[in-house]
Write a structure and sequence with these properties.
Length: 465
């Protein structure tokens, strides 16, 4: 039954990665010729081995741990532990399985720590498993509009989170929950720096890459910085994660890659790409690079996001729905640039839930694939978004301008991701407008025109310095 959990000392690191197959928290039992347990191996052990210079064809004897936790079945039955060993190893890895052995130390079964503790009832206090380490997720760009909410939700779901961010915009975001969660580590750093990449990648189970110079205007203001962050840093992170066999890597591309679609078809992942900007072209370059690096043990999942909307811990008022809500409330005006163009949209909370769904879904299903991630109920023409805003802010006047028209025009379908995982975005544009209204009404001192809420303005300022 546990065929895929067993190895001998002579197996290779590559074979061990194959048996773990990207499953979080899975342990491999290293046994001798009598099938007695002599060691335990985790992905963390394997990756530390690779970082220490071993290669995939090296034997696992160089990397497995012989100081491991196990439980004797006879002691478990009596709920009395004398020779069983718990927590002997410093738990840096997300181990949440434990081998149950007979008196000859042959493995009878492998159980999750949670199940083991549950089965012990009150006796669980007798074992010193103080901490079960849930998977450790690295969120690159963890202080951003999507990243900040993602980190918080992951922490609430008990994941360990390492966030790295250069803090280009709102520097207070992370402070809001830094001290509240023990399993949260924040590193202020530039992901373009290879030292930072090596530093943050240690002992993580999965990577979500969100750090970029985001949006066409910001990318146009600093095209070389955008090239470094949005393409070169992703390329080297892909090289590194592929080298370390980090199976799960989630990257947020954008539906901007579709650019303009005159026929107004509902676009899917096979539709033609027609990027109109430096930002969108780099998204395509990064998608290709990630897929070029795919292996059996590095299976990136690429999301092409619709335009994101809704309040977040780090707000952005340079996104169409959010900008309309802000102008409607503070200026009593909803400015529509053009109006006829179609745009797929998605609530930031749905993006977070989509990413978490991807973290929790086997890479066999969604690895090495591209998915649109948008809301099928939120494909709107820009003028339609204005109508939704006006419903909540009825005193605002709609003003159509023809001077600043963004040429993007596309509708997108997220059917493919729905079919793979059952996930559907559910939060509407109307709901986001209601939430913004509540937020504006609640905080009378809130200044939505602070530059920290506008990527272009901050990036453009750094250009002048
Ligand atoms: N928001 C949208 O509408 C939208 C739409 C499509 C795709 N996306 C994609 O989603 C991802 C996240 O977008 P967002 O809206 O959260 O943007 P954001 O600008 O709010 O977040 C990006 C974060 O990355 C950080 N960052 C930038 N360069 C960095 C570097 N070199 N090192 C470390 N940190 C760095 C910034 O400080 C910021 O906190 C991006 O890849 C973006 O292209 C967003």
């Amino acid at each position: 039954m546990y065929k895929n959990n067993f190895l001998t000392k002579n197996n290779t690191i590559k074979q061990a990665f194959g048996k773990i197959n990207g499953e979080f928290g899975k342990i491999l039992c290293v046994v001798d010729s009598k099938r007695s347990l002599i060691g335990v191996l985790t992905t963390g052990d394997l990756r530390r081995g690779i970082l220490a210079g071993f290669n995939l064809n090296d034997k696992i004897e160089k990397v497995y741990s012989n100081d491991f936790s196990f439980v004797y079945l006879h002691e478990l039955k009596k709920k009395k532990f004398i020779s069983s060993k718990f927590n002997t190893k410093k738990l840096t890895d997300s181990i949440y399985q434990i081998p149950i052995v007979n008196k000859k130390k042959q493995v009878i079964s492998i159980v999750s720590l949670e199940k083991l503790i549950d089965s012990l009832g009150d006796n669980s206090k007798k074992i010193s498993l103080k901490k079960i380490n849930y998977p450790k997720i690295l969120v690159v760009g963890g202080a951003g509009y999507i990243g900040a909410n993602l980190c918080l939700k992951l922490l609430k779901k008990k994941y360990q989170v390492v966030a790295v961010d250069k803090l280009l915009y709102d520097k207070s975001v992370i402070k809001k929950y830094l001290n509240k969660y023990k399993k949260f580590k924040f590193i202020r750093g530039d992901i373009c720096d290879l030292n930072v990449q090596i530093d943050v990648i240690k002992n993580v189970d999965a990577v979500v890459f969100l750090a970029e110079i985001v949006g066409d205007p910001a990318c146009n203001a600093r095209p070389e910085d955008a090239l470094k962050t949005n393409y070169l840093s992703i390329s080297s992170m892909a090289t590194l994660c592929s080298h370390l066999n980090i199976t799960k890597f989630i990257y947020t591309s954008s539906c901007s890659v579709y650019g303009v679609n005159k026929k107004n078809d509902l676009l899917n992942e096979k539709s033609d790409l027609n990027p109109l900007s430096h930002y969108a072209r780099m998204k395509i370059m990064s998608e290709k690079t990630l897929l070029n690096f795919r292996t059996n043990n590095f299976k990136p999942t690429i999301f092409r996001l619709g335009t994101v909307f809704g309040p977040s811990l780090r707000n952005r008022f340079d996104l169409v729905v959010n900008t309309m809500a802000k102008n409607a409330y503070y200026n009593k005006e909803i400015i529509v640039n053009g109006g006829e163009q179609w745009r797929p949209n998605i609530h930031v909370d749905d993006v977070v839930d989509g990413i978490i769904t991807a973290i929790q879904t086997s890479s066999k299903k969604i690895g090495s694939k591209i998915f649109n991630l948008s809301s099928d109920i939120s494909n709107y023409q820009i003028k339609g978004l204005a109508s939704e805003t006006k419903k909540i802010f009825p005193k605002a006047n709609v003003k159509v301008v023809k001077s600043l028209i963004d040429g993007r025009n596309y509708r997108a379908s997220s059917e493919l991701f729905y079919k793979a995982t059952g996930f559907k975005a559910v939060k509407s544009v109307l709901q986001a407008n209601k939430d913004f209204k509540k937020m504006f009404l609640k905080d009378k001192k809130f200044n939505p025109n602070n530059k920290i809420f506008n990527n272009f303005e901050i990036i453009n300022d750094t250009k002048k310095k």
